[in-house]
Amino acid sequence: MEASKIRRLLTWVVDIGCILFLFLGLLRLLPTGLLKPEGYRFVVLAIMFAYYAGMEIFFKRTIGKLLTGTQLVTNNDAAPHTGQLLLRTACRFLPLEPLSLLFSSNKLAWHDRVSKTKVIHLDY
């Protein structure tokens, strides 16, 4: 069964928290003054891309999906291939993409539609 919009929102909140945690951890490791404030955006985007692509390619789940009991599959309920996962991750950077799920009638965001994937709720 496809994951509800509320479950997807909770997944997103957890994943954004993980990305923020990674960003703040990286800032603590870097020497003071190495990054100028305008460089923060690039670093956050790079961490975000690495987080989503890495987690979904290697585990087919992010930490948010793990905690909310959801998993990523293709529209045919198969395991997505690497190309789909990279396309899915790239689509997350489209302007207004996070809002696409809120205004969707079928629980699919743009990154789902373009990559032909969906997030399902696992009934253990």
Q: Main attributes?
A:
mainly alpha; two-stranded antiparallel ribbon; 57% helix
pLDDT < 50 runs, ≥5 residues: none
Kindly provide the radius of gyration, computed on alpha-carbon positions and rounded to a whole number of angstroms. 15 Å
Name the overall outline. Answer: elongated
Tell me roughly what share of residues is in helical segments.
55-70%
List the domain count as a whole number: 1
Protein structure class: mainly alpha
Strand content: 5-15%
Query: How many DSSP-defined strands?
Result: 2
Question: Largest sheet at a glance?
Answer: 2 strands, antiparallel
Instruction: Determine the number of helices (DSSP H or I, runs of at least 4 residues).
Output: 6
pLDDT averaged residue by residue: 91
Taken in chain order, the helices and strands follow as: HHHEHHHE
Distance between the termini: 12 Å
Largest sheet strand order: 1-2
What is the topological layout?
Elements: H1 5-29, H2 40-59, H3 63-68, E1 70-74, H4 82-91, H5 97-100, H6 110-115, E2 117-121
Antiparallel strand pairs: 1-2
Structural commentary:
The structure is a single chain. With 124 residues, the chain is mainly alpha-helical. The model has no long low-confidence stretch (mean pLDDT 91). Helix 1 packs across helix 2 (40-59) and helix 2 (40-59) packs antiparallel against helix 4 (82-91). The protein has one domain (5-121). The longest helix has 25 residues, at 5-29. It has six helices and two strands; from the N terminus they run αααβαααβ. The radius of gyration is 15 Å and the shape is elongated.
